[in-house]
Design a protein that fits this description.
This protein is about 70% helix and about 0% strand. It is built from 19 helices and no strands.
Length: about 425
Amino acid sequence: MLGLGTFFGLLLALLIGTLRRPAVAFAAVLCLYGLKQWGQDTSPFLVEHRTIANWSAAVLVAIALLRPQGRDGQHTTAISSMPWVLGIALYAYAFITLAWSPDWKLAIAQWASQAPYVIVVAVVAPLLLNNAQDVRRICDWTVMIGTALCGLALFFGHWGARGLLVSGDLSAAETDPLAIAGLGGTICVAAMLAFPGAPWRKKLLYALAVPVGLAVILRSGSRGQLVATALALLVGWPLVSARRSLSTWVALAAVALVLNLLGTWLFQQLGVDSYRWTGSQSQEDITGRLAMASALLQHAIAHPASLVFGLSNSSSFFYMGIYPHIAPLEVLAEEGLIGATIYLCMVASTLQSILRIKASNSERADSSARYPLAVLTALLVFEFVLSLKQGQLLSSTYVIAYAAMLGRMAAWQPAASSHLSMAESVTPVQPFPNLMR
C-alpha cells in the first residue's frame, strides 16, 4: 500500500500544483521516470498498468495548456522559438528517413515506443514556460517531488545490482538505473543553483535534496550522471553568481570540496561496487561506445547518398543490434549531413539564446533574477552530456525541451529591452514651441 499511496499522493500534489500554476506540469514531466520506477518497484498493480504514470503526466500537461495563461505578466505570447522549431524539424526529418529504412518494422517499433515522449516532452511541454517565475516553480516542484521519490527509493525501495527491482518479476528484472539517476542529478543541479538566493525554509529542502540526489546516483552506479552533474554545476554556478570575481571561484571550489566529501561518505555508506568507478572500467566503456559509433559511421560513409541523407533513423538496430549511445554521431550516421546540419543549427541557436539572455541580465545582481538562465543552461548541459554516453535522438527529448525553453526565454528579452529603451528615450516634445505661445 505504501507504493500505491505515495504514487497517487504525489500525482495528486502535482495535479493541485498544476491547477494553481500550469507550469508545474513540467515538473511532472521531469519526475516521470522516477514515478514509474517507484510504482513498478512497490506495486504489482502499477507493474501491470505501467503506463499510468505516462498518461498522468500527459494529462497534466494538457490541463496546463488549457488553463488560462498570462496572469503573471508574461513577456511574450509567441508559441515558437527557433531551437524549438529546429528540434521539431530534426524529428520530422528523422521520421521521413524511415522511407528508406533497412528494417521498417524494427524502426516503427522504436518510434511507437518513443513517439509519445517526443510529443509530450520535446514538442508540447516547453510551451508551458511563459515567464521567469515559471522556471522557479518548475524547479521547486521538481526538487520537492523528485526528492520525495528518490528518498522513498533509497529507504523503502528494493534494489538489485543497480536499479530498483520490478515487483513480482520472477527473473528479478531491474528498472533502468540511468533513469532514476537522471532524476537525482536534476534535483541536485536545481537545488544547488537555487540555494544562494533562497529563503531559509527552502534552503532546508535544497540541503536535503542534494545528498539524496547524490545517493541515488551512487547507488545506481551511474558514473555519467555524476560527471554530468558536476559539469552542469560548473557551468551554472558562475551564471547564477552576481559577479565573476575571485570570491565566486573560491565559493565554487568550496562547494566542489563539500560535494566531494559528501560523495565519498555516501560511497562508503551505500557499499557501492567500486569496480564500476575504476578508470580502467570507464575507459573500456568509453572505447566501446566510440567503436559502435565508428562502425555505424562506416556504414553511412560507404555510399554518398547515405552520407548526405542518412542511413535512416533507428537503422543502428539493424546494423549493430543496438544504438551507439552517442546521440550527435548517431544523428550524423542515421540522418546524414542534412540531419547533422539541423542539429548543429539547433545547438547554435540555443547558444545564441543563452548569450542574449545573459547580456540582458548582465546588470542584475540579484541571484534570483539570474537563476532561470543558470538552471536551464545547467540542466541543458546535464542532459547534453548524458546524450554523449547513453543517448539516441529519440531519447534526447529533454535536450530539445531545455533548448526550446531557453529559446522562449530569449524571445522575452528584445521585447522587454526595446520597451524599456523606448520608455526612457522618448520624451514629449512640443512641435513649433513659438506657435504655442
